[in-house]
Amino acid sequence: MKKTLIIYASMSGNTEDIAKLIGKRLQEDEMDVTYEDMDACDSESLKKYDYILAGSYTWGDGDLPYEAEDFYEELSDADFTGKKIGCFGSGDHAYPKFCEAVDLLHGRFAETGAAVFTDLLKIEGSPETDEAISECIQFAESFSAWCAKSGRVTMNVS
Q1: Cα 31 from Cα 155, distance rounded (Å)
Q2: Distances (CA, A) of 121 to 1, 44, 45
């Protein structure tokens, strides 16, 4: 089983719920999934995982939440060459920069030399609707398929 880390920043639980939906689907593809709060994670500890998914809610006008700031800054000196990374998050369309934290994380991980999954998952609020749940599952399936292209994951197709 490939070691997969899902890190997230979640204040109201929305991004955590997204993380759990993604992780549950990835486990079906024989990934060993670990969850960790972003504010308790450092970039060095990520290196022991084969795959990484990072999620955050967006605060205010497109800002990273305080729980993600230190981690985000630490990434500026990290080297994740060879790692496969995906980004997701929750937000509110009432703000002009919907889910901007997802874009910020995606850009920063790309600067680390990692292979960053181009699809981004951005969910309005909580993933409670059938449509939102389906988007989370489809994102996980696409991420898993993308990882499998390198021959690292055996897909369990249902």
Answers
A1: 10
A2: 24, 25, 24
Q: Which two tokens stand for residue 46?
A: 């990520």
pLDDT at site 61: 87
SS3 112: coil
Q: Tell how strand 115-124 and strand 84-91 pair up.
A: parallel
d(CA 84, CA 90): 21
Distance CA 71, CA 74 (A): 5
Alpha helices, H only, the chain: 14-28, 43-46, 66-74, 100-111, 130-148
Nearest to 121, CA basis, from 101, 100, 141, 139: 139
pLDDT digits (tens, 9 = 90+) for 15-51: 999 999 999 999 999 999 999 999 999 888 999 999 9
Cβ proximity of 8 and 16 under 8 Å: yes
Quick one: residue 46, left, alpha or beta (phi over 0 = left, psi -120 to 50 = alpha)? alpha
